[in-house]
C-alpha cells in the first residue's frame, strides 16, 4: 500500500472512530534528535527553539528539524547541549 493510501485510510479511521472530521498534513521534518545536557542549558536551548521542540512519550525533549545545517548549528551555538539520534533506555 502506498504512503498516500495509508494516510487516507488512517484519516478515515480516525474520523469514523471519533466522529470528528480531520485530516493529516505532511510535515517538512526529516530528523528528530533527543536533547541532553545540563538542565539549565537544555531549557535555554528549548526556549530559543520553541518552533522545533516536542516531547516524546516519556516527556523528554526532542528537537525536530528538516536540515542537517540546523543540527550542525546546535553543536556550534550550544556547546553544552548534545543531540542524539537514538534514546538510551534503562531496563
How many β-strands, per DSSP?
4
CATH topology: Alpha-Beta Plaits
Order of helices and strands: HEHEEHE
Q: Alpha-carbon distance between the termini?
A: 35 Å
* Overall form: elongated
Largest sheet: number of strands, sense, barrel closure? 4 strands, antiparallel
What amount of the residues lies in strands?
A: 15-25%
Helix content: 25-40%
Provide the gyration radius in Å.
Answer: 17 Å
Give the total of domains: 1
The residue ranges in which pLDDT falls below 50 over 5 or more consecutive positions are none
Mean pLDDT reading: 87
Description:
By secondary structure, this protein is α+β, with helices and mostly antiparallel strands. It has one domain (about 5-85): 2-Layer Sandwich (Alpha-Beta Plaits), CATH 3.30.70.3280. It is about 40% helix and about 20% strand. It contains three helices and four strands; from the N terminus they run H-E-H-E-E-H-E. The chain has a four-stranded antiparallel β-sheet. The termini are far apart. The mean pLDDT is about 85.
Task: Give a short summary of the structure.
This protein is an alpha+beta fold and 91 residues long.
Q: How would the blueprint of this fold be written?
A:
Blueprint: H1 3-18, E1 31-36, H2 39-48, E2 53-55, E3 61-65, H3 68-77, E4 82-84
Antiparallel strand pairs: 1-3, 1-4, 2-3
Question: Which tags fit this structure?
Answer:
91 residues, alpha+beta, Alpha-Beta Plaits, 40% helix, 19% strand, elongated
Amino acid at each position: 500500500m502506498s504512503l498516500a493510501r495509508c494516510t487516507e485510510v488512517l484519516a478515515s479511521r480516525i474520523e469514523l472512530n471519533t466522529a470528528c472530521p480531520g485530516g493529516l498534513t505532511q510535515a517538512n521534518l526529516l530528523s528528530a534528535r533527543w536533547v541532553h545536557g545540563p538542565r539549565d542549558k537544555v531549557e535555554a536551548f528549548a526556549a530559543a527553539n520553541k518552533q522545533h521542540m516536542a516531547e516524546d512519550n516519556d516527556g523528554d525533549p526532542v528537537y525536530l528539524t528538516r536540515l542537517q545545517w540546523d543540527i550542525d548549528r546546535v553543536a556550534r551555538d550550544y556547546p553544552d547541549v548534545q543531540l542524539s539520534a537514538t534514546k538510551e533506555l534503562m531496563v
